[in-house]
Amino acid sequence: MNAQIPRQLLRRQLLVGGKRRLAGDVSRGFSSSVRQTQQQTVPPKIPRDAPATTHFGFETVAEALKEQKVGAVFSSVASSYDTMNDLMSLGIHRLWKDHFVRNLNPGRNPLTSPPSSEQGWNILDIAGGTGDIAFRMLDHASTINNDAHTRVTVADINVDMLAEGKKRALQSPYARTPRLKFVEANAEKLDMIPDSSIDLYTVAFGIRNFTHKDAAIREAYRVLKPGGVFACLEFSKVNNPLFDAVYKRWSFSAIPLIGQLVASDRDSYQYLVESIEKFPSQTEFRDMIRKAGFLVPGQGWEDLTGGIAAIHKGVKPAK
Ligand SMILES: C[S@@+](CC[C@H](N)C(=O)[O-])C[C@H]1O[C@@H](n2cnc3c(N)ncnc32)[C@H](O)[C@@H]1O
């Protein structure tokens, strides 16, 4: 209970106060440099040490601040995350996740796979949060491929999301087995994962929150075995303009409102819809995957529900 109080305060500072504080800092910085420029009457110079910026939803923030602000969002939504997902997507996220996993077909089926010294797949579910993808992967490997060896490491930067995942794992057959592991990690720097050790890297609705998406994709490439697969399920760009208008109206009006009514947290859900808008298009994201060295099959992605979400895949070339 007590641990909640500082977290709530931190969240409020980062989500609300942060906007004002950052705006204040920036404008203070500008006004002092303007004053200096006027006094010295020399042409204004762009400061060489100006901090790099990125977006946090529609806000521009210093790169160093984004991780904290994203952390505050997910700490705030962790306990209501699964319920809110169902409400916001009208349950459709479950169908997308089922399709994502079925299509990847995790696990080594002893009847159809060539004999191998390795047992099962080693799967890394990045930004795995409350474990939605991991549980589906393990269920699929066990029930469809009769594979009781495939294992999933759920890695997430946020301890509150991981705690919800661990709680959910207790209701599954995988709790306290070597098949399921939870690790606190930043997708951009996976030092604890050896090179070429992973068969399948998944990231679902996580990558749009990363500060340096390109660094995370490079890390995916590093940790995957040759022939290993990078698979990303993420919100994307709707293809039909009419459907897009309806979808945007729903997401920008209903989602923050549901967040306010159900989770008493409008700001976090406002960020979530803004972050979807800022995420690259299907082709831009496909090109980022290619740039990291992956082979991209076909056009590189599959649209789901008219492009509300998309699955992108890349294969690390076999040497
Ligand atoms: C929208 S949730 C998705 C959770 C889960 N994959 C799902 O599909 O339900 C996004 C997750 O990304 C995590 N995340 C954000 N930035 C991260 C980073 N740099 N490294 C690892 N995880 C990150 C958040 O903590 C959060 O748990």
UniProtKB/TrEMBL annotation:
The keyword Plastid appears for this protein: no
A single GO cellular-component term on record: extrinsic component of mitochondrial inner membrane
Signal peptide positions on this chain: none
EC number: 2.1.1.201
Record's bilayer topology term: Peripheral membrane protein
A GO biological-process term: methylation
Location relative to the cell: Mitochondrion inner membrane
Keywords, ordered alphabetically: Membrane, Methyltransferase, Mitochondrion, Mitochondrion inner membrane, S-adenosyl-L-methionine, Transferase, Ubiquinone biosynthesis
Taxonomic superkingdom: Eukaryota
Pathway stated in the Swiss-Prot or TrEMBL entry: Cofactor biosynthesis; ubiquinone biosynthesis
MF annotations from Gene Ontology: 2-methoxy-6-polyprenyl-1,4-benzoquinol methyltransferase activity
Record-linked InterPro entries: SAM-dependent_MTases_sf, UbiE/COQ5_MeTrFase, UbiE/COQ5_MeTrFase_CS
Region (Disordered): 27-51
EC supergroup of this enzyme: transferase
Positions in coiled-coil regions: none
Classification via Pfam families: Ubie_methyltran (PF01209)
Residues that, per the record, bind S-adenosyl-L-methionine: 130, 156, 186-187
Function statement: Methyltransferase required for the conversion of 2-polyprenyl-6-methoxy-1,4-benzoquinol (DDMQH2) to 2-polyprenyl-3-methyl-6-methoxy-1,4-benzoquinol (DMQH2).
Classification via NCBIfam families: MenG_MenH_UbiE (TIGR01934)
PANTHER family given in the database record: 2-METHOXY-6-POLYPRENYL-1,4-BENZOQUINOL METHYLASE, MITOCHONDRIAL, METHYLTRANSFERASE
Protein name in the entry: 2-methoxy-6-polyprenyl-1,4-benzoquinol methylase, mitochondrial
Organism ancestry: Eukaryota, Fungi, Dikarya, Ascomycota, Pezizomycotina
